[in-house]
Each structure stands twice: as C-alpha cells, then as structure tokens.
Design goal:
CATH architecture: 3-Layer(aba) Sandwich
Number of strands: 4
Order of helices and strands: HHEHEHEHE
Number of domains: 1
Radius of gyration: 16 Å
Structural class: alpha+beta
Number of helices: 5
Bound molecules: flavin mononucleotide
Strand content: 15-25%
Oligomer: single chain
Distance between the termini: 29 Å
Length: 169
Amino acid sequence: MLEAIAKRFSCRSFKPDPVPDEAVQELLHAALCAPSAHNARPWHLLVVRDPEKRRALARVHKWAGFCAESPVVIVVAADPSRSDHWWIEDCSAAVENILIQATAMGLGTCWVGVRGSDERGYEREEKVREVCAIPPNIRVAALVAVGYPAVEGQPKGPAPLEAIHGETW
Ligand SMILES: Cc1cc2nc3c(=O)[nH]c(=O)nc-3n(C[C@H](O)[C@H](O)[C@H](O)COP(=O)(O)O)c2cc1C
C-alpha cells in the first residue's frame, strides 16, 4: 500500500491506449469504499470517455487541458442533501482512493479541482454540469483524468518533516 501511495504522482500526459472497462470498474469500486461522514455516501460518479465531452471538460479551466488527452475522465460529485456539511471531505476521500488504486494498477491520474465557493468556482462546476447533464442540486467536487502515463513517473516524495509535530506544537 505504501508503495502505491509513494509512487503516485500527478500525470498530465497520457498514451492514447484505452483503459479497459474492468480497470475503470475497479477504480469506481475503490471510490465507493471510501469513508464518509455518518456513512452518508453522498457520491455520484460519472465515467466520461466520449472525446467531445472530454474536450469540453478540458476547457473547464486552464489547468484541465490534459482531460482531452486522457482516455477516461471520472467526475466525482455529491448530493449535498445527503451530507450538507461533509460532502467535500467525502468526495476528497473517494478521489484519493481512485488515485491510489490507479497507481497500483499502473495507471496515471491527475486530480482536477472544479469546486469553488466564489463566482468563478460555481462557473466551473456549471460547465461540468452542462457537459455531463448533471442536475443542478448536485455539487461537482473534482475531475480525475485517468490513462496510461506517457511520461516516467516523477513522485515528489513526502512533504518536509516540519509538518509533523509531537503531542504539542
Ligand atoms: C484539491 C486539488 C485540486 C487540484 N487541481 C488540479 C488541477 O486543476 N489541475 C492540475 O493539473 N493539477 C491539480 N491538482 C494536482 C496538484 O497540482 C498536485 O497534486 C501537486 O502539484 C503535487 O504534485 P503530485 O500530485 O505529483 O504529488 C490538484 C490537487 C488537489 C489536491
């Protein structure tokens, strides 16, 4: 497990090779095994393979361009009526499970944030809703670009140890 966690890196360049359905199913399974506050499991996951839709998702903001290149984009969304306070954390846990499982399977991924509380953020979510016909009551947390890496993995290594404290600061 630690090996997959340490090997994960944000992959922004993908081979055109398709990702088999079974592999995508495993990623979705990993997402659905994530913890969620009060076990609310508010997730909604969409699998986008259609090149036109992916090109549209790639335009959601300027750091999402590689979604046009990755053969799969998973949209991670939630129904806030099931978890008004915690849906962001619930979605983040699901995203991380996808990233780690994908790494263990030799797939590359990149987390693309689209959620936002400012006007611009809502605009991004709105674009994703439009592309994927997601109902207005559903919040979109992130896109995950998935495919076989076209680059050698460059994991950044752990953050500096200053982040770690003892029992007191
Ligand atoms: C909440 C969140 C949003 C992110 N959004 C984007 C994004 O929109 N585009 C992108 O290229 N990378 C995005 N990333 C990836 C980060 O840039 C990346 O994790 C960070 O630079 C560390 O690199 P690493 O993932 O290779 O360790 C996001 C990561 C997180 C956690």
